Structure to design on (177 residues):
């Protein structure tokens, strides 16, 4: 997993080095910055798939386009993991991520790749309070919408808590004025 995180960080650094126009944070306007609000739906995998049937969540992010192709921001939200009804002792729990987002948009509309990195706080009756998370994603974007597939993993200190999810999401862009 360390290799994956290092590879993604290196990829973002290379992409940033090809940037042509760099903006400063004071340059925020409706063309380069927005609030992203959306929904995600996921399927728990690995050990979590034995106890949870699906995950449903809300995403919120603030993004600043540092260049025309490279976006940075902060991300949070809430995802509820629903317990399987046929598993004794399985209970619903929640995840609240707080992280940084990195996106690469080759064109003004079309394909994009990115990742979120940060810490996820876990709520409910679960054996861990949270841990570091990574959420790589690939999708389609236009001026108003982002549709993407993602993989999410939370690395907790409790060996019995392995949180991995594969899912899809959609976010709507609200422009800063």
């Amino acid at each position: 997993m360390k290799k994956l995180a290092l590879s993604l960080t290196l990829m973002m650094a290379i992409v940033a080095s090809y940037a042509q126009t760099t903006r400063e944070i004071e340059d925020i306007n409706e063309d380069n910055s927005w609030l992203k609000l959306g929904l995600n739906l996921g399927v728990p995998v690995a050990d979590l798939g034995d106890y949870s049937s699906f995950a449903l969540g809300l995403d919120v992010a603030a993004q600043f386009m540092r260049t025309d192709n490279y976006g940075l921001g902060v991300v949070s939200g809430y995802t509820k993991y629903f317990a399987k009804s046929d598993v004794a002792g399985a209970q619903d729990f929640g995840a609240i991520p707080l992280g940084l987002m990195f996106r690469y948009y080759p064109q003004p509309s079309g394909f994009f790749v990115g990742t979120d990195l940060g810490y996820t706080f876990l709520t409910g009756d679960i054996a861990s309070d949270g841990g570091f998370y990574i959420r790589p994603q690939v999708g389609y974007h236009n001026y108003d919408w982002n549709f993407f597939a993602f993989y999410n993993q939370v690395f907790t200190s409790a060996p019995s808590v392995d949180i991995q999810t594969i899912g899809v999401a959609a976010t709507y862009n609200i422009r800063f004025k």
